[in-house]
């Protein structure tokens, strides 16, 4: 069962301007929020809406940003239609306003998911790990016992990150082979044991109930 994390007091305060409006005005704000998600909103639009409502342009901008956060926040948490309605009802919206907001939430699902990808942190993805065991042998100049070294080659996929370029067609109808970034690391056995310990700790944490709940919210 998905739970939508509660909104902060700041977001609730910014949304309070919308709570006071009728369904028609709220529908206009939902249109501006959808526009904001797709390609941004010109400051003149904030000024025009503010003039009609008798408020400051900054209040209109804050309200639209808070509305975008509400919609994307719920999309990120994979909230059902009913869960979304429960959330916005607790914020004080009327039944008519709840219907308008719910339509905006369901109608713009695809755009909201793209917006979340665009806003996300772009990091390389793990592809492969190779290792080699190195030790210096047969040297007369070596006056102490040689310590072995482990060389690691980490292959990173940067082409499946949000916002990155995908593999292009090579002209013959086939996609070119993906090129991976190679990262070389060298360490001694003691450090490798420490790295293994840290990774095992991270793996254990990832399996906890708390981590699984967080994963459900952000997937």
Automatic annotation (TrEMBL):
Residues 125-210 form the COMM domain. InterPro entries: COMM (IPR017920), Commd2 (IPR037354). PROSITE patterns: COMM. This is COMM domain-containing protein. It comes from Cherax quadricarinatus (Australian red claw crayfish).
């Amino acid at each position: 069962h998905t739970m939508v994390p509660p909104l902060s007091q700041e977001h609730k305060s910014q949304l309070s301007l919308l709570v006071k409006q009728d369904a028609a005005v709220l529908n206009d704000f939902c249109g501006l929020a959808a526009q904001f998600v797709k390609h941004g909103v010109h400051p003149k639009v904030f000024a025009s809406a503010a003039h009609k409502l008798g408020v400051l342009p900054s209040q209109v901008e804050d309200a639209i940003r808070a509305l975008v956060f509400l919609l994307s926040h719920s999309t990120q948490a994979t909230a059902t239609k009913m869960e979304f309605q429960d959330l916005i009802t607790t914020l004080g919206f009327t039944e008519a306003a709840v219907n308008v907001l719910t339509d905006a939430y369901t109608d713009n699902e695809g755009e909201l998911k793209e917006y979340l990808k665009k806003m996300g942190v772009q990091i390389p993805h793990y592809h492969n790990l190779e290792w080699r065991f190195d030790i210096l042998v047969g040297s007369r100049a070596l006056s102490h016992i040689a310590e072995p070294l482990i060389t690691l080659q980490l292959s990173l996929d940067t082409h499946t990150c949000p916002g990155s370029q995908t593999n292009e067609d090579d002209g013959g109808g086939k996609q070119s082979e993906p090129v991976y970034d190679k990262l070389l690391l060298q360490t001694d056995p003691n450090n490798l044991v420490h790295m293994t310990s840290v990774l095992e700790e991270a793996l254990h944490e990832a399996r906890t109930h708390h981590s699984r709940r967080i994963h459900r919210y952000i997937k």
